[in-house]
Specification:
This protein is globular. It is an alpha/beta fold. The strands form 3 sheets. It has an 11-stranded mixed sheet, sandwiched between helices. A two-stranded antiparallel ribbon has the order 4-5. It is 38% helix and 14% strand. It has one domain: Alpha-Beta Complex (Amidase signature (AS) enzymes).
Length: 471
């Protein structure tokens, strides 16, 4: 009876639950069986919770009493930088080892109210700094499509868990593409909502003006369900907004293609896959419009000034005094230096140093000030481009999942974010939808198609995404 239940879409599972064909306990057990089988190799989950079946029984009881929420009894994976009360949370860093969350993140509270089941916490790049989950203090997460390759990052654990059938839905955070890039690598749909559309309360911060919680799912319909559960203004997050305040655009079936952005640096077969997706959409009545976003060429440089600056500020609180690991020295300064030097991994230290540098006296105007000006210009250019079309379309990443250890040079890793960082800098909603896979060494590897829409117009992304999914 449990065969294949762990690979159901949320929509299909909800229908079967409503018809009493299956129970939440059945689905939970199917996921736990798959976790037991595949997680030791994939390393997607850092911890599987010990009360999953109890949560499922409680969900079945709620349904028996007449509750009908779509997510009631759906098992999900949660990135290990989103707080769940009473559970450990580490952001995949040694510096937070042993820390237990004392409250729920707003997104967790909403999911609990909806009846979702939490299977466990998933691996990530330490403090979400990275694009491959190779920077985790607890080892790399492998790609279910080819275990020699990365799952993407920083939300690679959530993507791998869902892709491998170890959950029916999953959640990550997206600062520069950290939901969309692993979605591309693992063959999933991944959404970065409009900035402020989903509360960040209870989410361990990386870059506060860039971070956004986003869902992973197997279909656009499932992502829409998860997003509608999470969205909304939150009094506990002053940056959160009511997305209804943004004007809703009518779908004109026009897509903006910034061809100059991917003239160079994109693998030939990835470009071929992308062009096939464009032809498919044209066959469904879409018109392609050439758009130019000159500032996008600088987006990566702007991002890698603003994000480390915000990260260095946010991570200043991890000092070994209030929580987490503490290494004592002979002086207070040595306490800080030892704790942070031994508690943080090399990528986190690199970004803290870079961020501190660009914010320091004498360099602030030259770097951070210029980056914020370029960011504002980029926002204007994206806004102007979106006046000509419903969404801007591009590949999600310039290549499929890379081999573990292949991108050991930090700069080559940073270049993987070339198509995704713009939406974080401008605050626009963006989504990755699976395109035609490409072949590497006898394996079929997923690649994604990336769509960016006007602020508050997630519905546009879902409409185009459904057309992309259509057989």
């Amino acid at each position: 009876m449990n065969s294949g239940l762990n690979n159901l879409s949320i929509t299909s599972a909800a229908k079967k639950l409503a018809a009493k064909e299956i129970s939440a306990v059945d689905i939970a057990r199917a996921c736990l069986t798959e976790i037991e089988k595949r997680n030791p190799s994939l390393n997607a989950y850092l911890e599987v919770f010990d009360d999953v079946e109890a949560q499922a029984k409680a969900a079945d009881a709620r349904r028996a009493q007449g509750e009908k929420n779509t997510l009631l009894g759906i098992p999900m994976a949660m990135k290990d930088n989103i707080l769940i009360e009473g559970r450990k949370v580490s952001a995949a860093s040694k510096i937070l080892q042993g820390y237990t969350a004392s409250y729920d993140a707003t997104v967790v509270r909403k999911l609990k109210e909806a009846g979702g089941i939490f299977l466990g916490r998933t691996n990530l790049d330490e403090f979400a700094m990275g694009g491959s989950t190779e920077n985790s203090a607890f080892s790399v997460t492998k790609n279910p499509h080819d275990e020699r390759r990365v799952a993407g990052g920083s939300s690679g654990g959530s993507a791998a868990a869902l892709s491998a059938g170890m959950a029916l839905g999953a959640f990550g955070t997206d600062t520069g593409g950290s939901v969309r890039e692993p979605s591309s690598f693992c063959g999933l749909v991944g959404l970065k909502p409009t900035y402020g559309g989903v509360s960040r309360f209870g989410v361990i911060a990386l870059g506060s003006s860039l971070d956004q919680v986003g869902p992973f799912a197997r279909s656009v319909a499932d992502v829409e369900i998860l997003f509608n559960t999470l969205r909304g203004q939150d009094p506990l997050d002053s940056t959160s907004i009511d997305l209804g305040a943004y004007p809703q655009k009518k779908l004109t079936k026009k897509l903006g293609v910034p061809r100059k952005l991917f003239e160079k640096g994109v693998d030939a077969d990835v470009l071929e896959s992308f062009n096939a997706s464009l032809k498919k959409l044209e066959g469904q009545g879409y018109t392609l419009v050439d758009v130019e976003i000159p500032g996008a060429a600088l987006a990566l440089a702007v991002y890698y000034i603003i994000m480390p600056a915000e990260a260095s500020t946010n991570l200043a609180r991890y000092d070994g005094v209030r929580w987490g690991v503490r290494h004592e020295g002979k002086t207070l300064f040595e306490d800080y230096a030892k704790t942070r030097g031994e508690g943080f991994g090399p990528e986190v230290r690199r970004r803290i140093m870079l961020g501190t540098y660009v914010l320091s006296s004498g360099y602030y105007d030259a770097y951070y000030g210029k980056a914020t000006e370029a960011r504002a210009q980029l926002s204007r250019e994206v806004g102007a481009a979106l006046e000509k079309c419903d969404a801007i379309i591009s590949p999600t990443a310039p290549c499929p999942a890379t081999k573990i250890g292949e991108k050991s040079d930090p700069l080559s890793m940073y270049l993987m974010d070339i198509f995704t960082v713009t939406a974080n800098l401008t605050g626009n909603p963006a989504i990755s939808i699976p395109g035609n896979p490409v072949s590497r060494e006898g394996k079929e590897l997923p690649v994604g198609v990336h769509l960016t829409a006007a602020h508050g117009n997630e519905s546009t992304l879902f409409a185009i995404g459904r057309d992309l999914e259509a057989k």
